[in-house]
Write a structure and sequence with these properties.
The chain is an alpha/beta fold. Helix content is 36%, strand content 18%. It has a six-stranded mixed β-sheet, with helices on one face. A five-stranded parallel β-sheet has the order 8-5-6-7-13, sandwiched between helices. The chain has a two-stranded antiparallel sheet with strand order 1-2. α6 links the parallel β6 (151-158) and β7. α2 (51-63) crosses α3 and α2 packs across α9. The longest helix is centred in the middle third of the chain and has 18 residues, at 186-203. The protein is globular.
Amino acid sequence: MLYIPVNEKTPAVGLHEAVVRGIAPDGSLYLPVSLPTIPRAFFNNISAMTLPEIGYVVANMLFGSDIPSASIKSMVESALDFEIPFVENEPNRFTLDLTHGPTNNYNDISARFMARYVEMTRQSEQINVIVATSDNVGNAVADAFAPLDGVSTFVIYPTGALSDCRRSNLLDYGSQIVPIEVGATFHECQSLTRDMILSSQNNSNIPLLAANSVNIAILFPRVIYFFYAYARLAALNRPLDKVVIATPTENLGNATAAVIASKMGLPVSRFMAILTNDLDATDIVNESRLVSLMKNDKNRVNLASPETSPLTDDEISITFKIDDPGLCRIKPNIKGHQRQRVTHIGPSLPALTRLINEHNRKNFV
């Protein structure tokens, strides 16, 4: 499968280059040139399928032209090895609980998938990973990449943004995880991370991979839980002609995954993408990709909420539980790593560049 920048100012690339670059040289995000459609027959048996089985079918449709099927199967089974409960809260109102991974938030699915992809396809002994976080994705990415030799993960977050528990956990993974507190807003942290990725594409011997949802390897695995939610409802023998999936979305990543699931043929009546923060959509990094996916298409995904787009009595709704700070527990430092210290910088690209280069000199000999 080929991937083309949203701005279409640079050539299309293959999967590996899209993942390694994260962001196209023109500063825009990569989109698949086309999306595959899952055969309708797949849904005849979906109710009997496990999470890894559904994950394999979806991932194989998205990655199968670039990765051997056996490798995809191994990646999915390893990444999706935890429970995802499906609960009926009130009649015809269901929740898919995505908070049962290692760090208790929905990013565990995509972070673990990306880490396994990187380990399986890596072409360099030394790799840097960078992620901007306002609370939960940093822990998921750190936990997923910490076991990989030769991979350092730089977690960028605004001053005071992390809960005490998540901040504490970041410090006990060892020197490969580098927490960086920036005196800036989260939006400025995102911009700093983006600038660092673009700068490193031509000025670094060590690949720097983006682990936010700008990256196809983080975005695509999110599509899996839309299909899994539908499967769990189907297993209950409920009517499937008026199913609504309402997905919380912090930066339009989940909304974009919903559009992809729709285009792949998930037979849901409509999707609601509910913004969970105060950012305006025009300021969100994924907006250009989402708009491009929706372009010239009668899609069923809208930025809405049950309040602005009420559910009717005959609709069956599924929503996602994406985070539960109350589940966060300080993890014991079982490997005896020396406790790390947080590095504090301003929103400066030269300062971040120096920090990463110094870390590489000390740790990649």
